[in-house]
């Protein structure tokens, strides 16, 4: 049996119940084949995943995040690669990447929130919290497909906007991300 080429691994991971088990079995025994008709987002010529290795390197922080006003705090916790937890007070409207970088959490953000890399990959701790989030759009799903260590609660940190429903969210940082640097995207600006 052949899995339709249009079925992304990300979609398979997010199915529920008996369908989830069925699709997971299929995805194991019949891994998806590359789709020759797929049109990927444009990348600079210097950006080639096939020539890059994995890295846990940190890029420079570059945002104007500021702590929340008294009485308006929401909370998020980052669990770093060593298992250490960092609980941070944030404001409604903050995105996880900005918060992390401003608080010295070791996370990249090579494309600077353009949804054109997967270096800000985070893993939401708990499906219940994941279900409260707005669905990732097609661009985010495309980039998540390239993320190292993709899970069914994976998101791109720069695309997760904190609101009251996400108060208390906990996210883990994957052990590795695909190597990319801000300079790889500078020609897009
Ligand atoms: S920083 Fe590149 S997708 Fe988030």
Automatic annotation (TrEMBL):
Ranges where the 2Fe-2S ferredoxin-type domain occurs: 74-177
Highest taxon of source: Eukaryota
Cofactors that this protein relies on: [2Fe-2S] cluster
Matching Pfam families: Fer2
Record keywords: 2Fe-2S, Iron, Iron-sulfur, Metal-binding
Bias (Polar residues): 45-66
Keyword Cell cycle annotated: no
Segments of this protein annotated with the region Disordered: 26-66
GO cellular component: mitochondrion
GO BP term, example: P450-containing electron transport chain
Metal-binding listed as a keyword: yes
Molecular function GO labels: 2 iron, 2 sulfur cluster binding; electron transfer activity; metal ion binding
UniProt family annotation: Belongs to the adrenodoxin/putidaredoxin family.
Protein name, as recorded: Ferredoxin
Organism, scientific name: Rhizodiscina lignyota
Lineage: Eukaryota, Fungi, Dikarya, Ascomycota, Pezizomycotina
